[in-house]
Design brief:
heterodimer, A: seven-stranded mixed β-sheet, four-stranded antiparallel β-sheet, B: 118 residues, mainly beta, 51% strand
């Protein structure tokens, strides 16, 4: 069964460093999402992406964040200058169509900012 | 703004018994989708079941079923014949119907931690 994959599974970085989290959505899916989950808290929406453009973003997704689909398979989330509060689990998700209501999640990347 | 509330931070069930997890939501929209996701200790988010708001029939997936009460804005998950592998965090989520440029991101509740006792 097709699945969303994410790399790395864990990343430790120093405050102020840039990190890039990578996702490979399900191959025929067209809509992509990033969510994050701070330890012990609920999952929060960051951004959605379609046709090489951001469709929606939350107030969390400030200028420190950017997303990109550099090729036909990868979807990346970049945090330019990490802060301690960016430590969280980051989930990528994809869906086939906008009217395809189910979003399928990857296994997540656990980011720790020291 | 839409909100999702899970009032049970933790629940416990005996193996082979049935448990119901509660979820309520607030929305002014008539078309939307509701989901239950399971998050085991590995922290991966796994879709358990989904419900379209326009459908009156409650969704069922094997041992998992929902009780969808649209007027009451309630969406509970029933797990029958509970198994040790069901132990996980369960998140209720809402997604509005897409309109305009919106893709309808998921809005999650805070989750219910389910323990299964052997």
């Amino acid at each position: 069964e097709p699945e969303v994959t994410q790399t790395p599974s864990h990343q430790v970085t120093q405050m102020g460093q840039e990190v890039i989290l990578r996702c490979v959505p399900i191959s025929n899916h067209l809509y992509f999402y990033w969510y994050r989950q701070i330890l012990g808290q609920k999952v929060e929406f960051l951004v959605s992406f379609y046709n090489n453009e951001i469709s929606e973003k939350s107030e969390i997704f400030d200028d420190q964040f950017s997303v990109e689909r550099p090729d036909g398979s990868n979807f990346t989330l970049k945090i330019r200058s990490t802060k301690l509060e960016d430590s969280a689990m980051y989930f990528c998700a994809s869906s086939l169509r906008a009217t395809q209501e189910t979003q399928y999640f990857g296994p997540g990347t656990r980011l720790l900012v020291l | 703004a839409q909100t999702v509330t899970q009032s049970q931070p933790e629940m416990s069930v005996q193996e082979a018994e049935t448990v119901t997890l509660s979820c309520t939501y607030d929305t002014s929209e008539s078309d939307y989708y509701l989901f239950w996701y399971k998050q085991p200790p590995s922290r991966q988010m796994i879709l358990v079941i989904r419900q379209e708001a326009y459908k009156q029939q409650n969704a069922t997936e094997n041992r998992f079923s929902v009780n969808f009460q649209k007027a009451a804005k309630s969406f509970s998950l029933k797990i029958s014949d509970s198994q040790l592998g069901d132990a996980a965090m369960y998140f209720c989520a809402y997604r509005r119907e897409r309109y305009g440029g919106s893709q309808g991101n998921l809005i999650f509740g805070k989750g219910t931690k389910l323990s299964v006792k052997p």
